[in-house]
Amino acid sequence: MKPTIAVNWDSAKKSGIIDGDFYLADLLSQENATLKEKLFVLLKRDCYELDRNIDAAGFGNHKTAQFNDKQIAHTQFWNRYERPPKEEYWDYIVNRRDLLVPQDIRERKGSFFTPQIWVELSQKYLADVLGENWQDEYTIWDCAAGTGNLLTGLTNKYNIWASTLDKQDVDVMKDRIANGANLLESHVFQFDFLNDEFTKLPAGLQAIINDPEKRKKLVIYINPPYAESNGKVSLTRSDVQISATHKRYAAQLEKVGAELYAQFIARIYFEIPNCFIAEFSKLKLLSGVNSKVFRSYFEAKLEKLFIVPADTFDNVKGTFPIGFFIWNTVIKKKFESFNADVFERDGNLSGSKVFYSYDNERGRINDWLGVFKNKSKENNIGFLMADAPDFQHNNLVCIRSDKPKGHGICFAVNQHSLQVACIYLAVRHCIETTWLNDRDQFLSPNDGWQTDTEFQNDCLTSTLFNSQNRISSNEGVNHWIPFTESEINARDKFASNFMTKFIQGKLKPEASKQMALEEHDLPLQIRTTPLKFSPEAEAVFKAGRELWVYYHQQENCNVNASLYDIRAHFQGRNNKGKMNNKSDDAVYMELIKNLRENIKQLQTKIAPKVFEYGFLK
């Protein structure tokens, strides 16, 4: 029925008006009259009434939205359903207005409902830090309150303030107060925290913010919005405008200024000093590369931190942690590390995990990779696609035949850089990405790896047979075949025997490049003797050889096929061009299963060296 309501929905959305509020007005109505008078939109029999307020002269005014089909579609729709729902569900429905808010608006304005299990846990942690009677001794301000669910369970309504960007959410909170929510109506107000001046705050809250002693007993308790603009300093997304806070603290925030929640933290820290900040957020401020500059300004003691899976929050996708932080800004301390409590989705404490700033390390893994970068286009056998140095971006790390346009980190692979490229890929893929390690940073290693040839050869093996090795003979000469023609009974000669010559130590260094290596004192040498492989690597080669042999028995085989080509041959692709997960060929499925199991064993062997050599803390 939406098209039959006389509203320009695109314009309305820009003004913060959503169709979900019309739905609430309809749902909580009887005989076409909304039963809750404090909602933003009300159904008044044959029209909607919204945006009610009192003007400067003291008169009430409002807007109306009519039906353009004489209410026929509306009547036909609601004749199918019984409404209103049972009264005991009304407050829950109103409180979950966030479920009716479109995803883009949620991200921009923070309309995210904090699960009650984490609300209760956060308040327990606050009591642990501030004392059992903290609610009577401290003032609490949720400056990104939404419908106020983060404040559920608090007992002293005289010490609670709640502000939100949208008038609709203010109306919802006031409706909840009328139905028993433990808040004061005079302490609930509309306020744009990132743009409005503090002079717009209620006098009682201003008195606290402006008093240095009272600020020490102020807790800013929030689950702020998390919209970002792809990590760019200039917010280019049309729905994420540059705030006054961002402009004011651009130098202190730098790249992390693209994160709205970082802007909230910045304004609180710089303009409400010596308070407590209790906030739910991602962990980028702790360890993100883009947050390093802000960490140099932000000095506060992290009193408590627990982390939970992000997807326990409604409509939040992705396997990463969300943390609840309690910062004491009275105590000036640069963040270096913290041992956080880990809670699983069922609310059970499962252990702890240390998070680091990484600011005192030798650099990230991409800094290390950059040392070996050679800009020459001569004799390259492929390209390593690197990416941001955390587990979150591991799925983008791969070996390709071509150099894609627009990719940030593209590392040319040749005989001199092959081992480094393979170490990079193997290190980033030998440990499974989970919600818990999603933000862990890969670092520039110590020098131990340089003399560990077994580790280097394990990484070479892991990369040759890794599913992230996307080399394809369809995109140029395949230099990555790890076997000779006779080993797999090939039907014809390969276009390139580069990889077997490299393994056999039969490649000679190119003079110009060898000179460049010596000038830069890089710890790389071209092997002139055959590589020696560990038993785990040998098992991978054996499993791979059996797969290649079977493929070359197929009538329509491509002599120069790569592992990626072989997988595509047997597994095929769907109508979107994506490779299928399985094949109808039972022999192939057994061979690829055996190969993957052996690769997993090899990766398990590599993993401890990743920590030993400092690629991960």
Q: What would the keywords be for this entry?
A:
34% helix, three-stranded antiparallel sheet, 17 strands, 15% strand, 24 helices, alpha/beta, 617 residues, nine-stranded mixed sheet, single chain
C-alpha end-to-end distance: 56 Å
Spans of at least 5 consecutive residues with low confidence: 229-239, 514-523
Number of helices: 24
Q: How many β-strand stretches?
A: 17
Q: Which structural class is indicated by helix and strand composition? A: alpha/beta
Residue fraction in strands:
5-15%
**How are the strands of the largest sheet arranged?**
8-7-6-9-10-12-11-13-14
Shape: globular
Mean pLDDT: 90
Helix content: 25-40%
How large, in whole angstroms, is the Cα Rg?
A: 30 Å
The major sheet is characterized as: 9 strands, mixed
Task: Provide structural commentary.
With 617 residues, this protein is an alpha/beta fold. The chain has 24 helices and 17 strands. A 9-stranded mixed beta sheet has the order 8-7-6-9-10-12-11-13-14, sandwiched between helices. Strand 3 and strand 4 form a beta hairpin. Helix 22 runs antiparallel to helix 24. The protein is globular, with a radius of gyration of 30 Å. Mean pLDDT is 90; it is low at 229-239 and 514-523.
